[in-house]
């Protein structure tokens, strides 16, 4: 999506995983923006940086995250379906598997996709 993402993640230390994910992707995003000479956008990320953030000059991600425990196959399928339907609801595509940055191709058509999918075991 253009303004958010959903992840299904398993970890014994989710907070550290999310911190590392945000740090890594923020660095990659900033490098790409510099390479693309998108100074106006870099300046926006600098402008909106939270004052108490002392380790970085830019704010790419919102603070925090909203974890939900998935404890049954039914809830897992519900969450995956919700994620896959997001670009359809937004009108970007007519079928979930047409969204480039989705695991829908893997789940619906058993095809490789841009998103690495690990099989979940319950």
Tell me what the structure shows.
This protein is mainly alpha-helical. It has two domains: about 5-65; about 70-120, no CATH class. It is built from four helices and no strands. The chain has helices spanning about 15-35, 40-45, 75-90, 105-110. It is globular, with a radius of gyration of 17 Å. It starts with 13 loop residues before the first helix and ends in a 13-residue tail after the last helix. The mean pLDDT is about 90.
What's the gist of this structure?
The chain is mainly α. The protein has four helices and no strands.
Shape: globular
What is the succession of H and E elements? Answer: HHHH
Q: Please work out how many helical segments DSSP would assign.
A: 4
Q: Percent of residues in beta strands?
A: under 5%
* Count of extended strands: 0
Low-confidence stretches: none
Could you estimate the helical fraction of the residues in percent?
40-55%
Structural class call reads mainly alpha
Global mean pLDDT: 91
Kindly report how far apart the N and C termini lie: 28 Å
């Amino acid at each position: 999506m253009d303004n958010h993402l959903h992840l299904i993640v398993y970890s014994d230390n989710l907070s550290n995983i999310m911190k590392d994910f945000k740090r890594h992707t923020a660095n990659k995003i900033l490098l790409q923006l510099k390479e693309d000479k998108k100074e106006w956008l870099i300046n926006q990320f600098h402008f909106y940086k939270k004052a108490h953030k002392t380790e970085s000059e830019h704010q790419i991600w919102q603070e925090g995250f909203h974890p939900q425990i998935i404890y049954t196959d039914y809830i897992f399928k519900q969450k995956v379906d919700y994620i896959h339907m997001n670009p359809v609801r937004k009108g970007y595509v007519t079928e979930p598997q047409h969204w480039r940055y989705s695991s829908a191709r893997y789940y619906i058509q058993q095809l490789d996709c841009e998103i690495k999918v690990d099989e979940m075991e319950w």
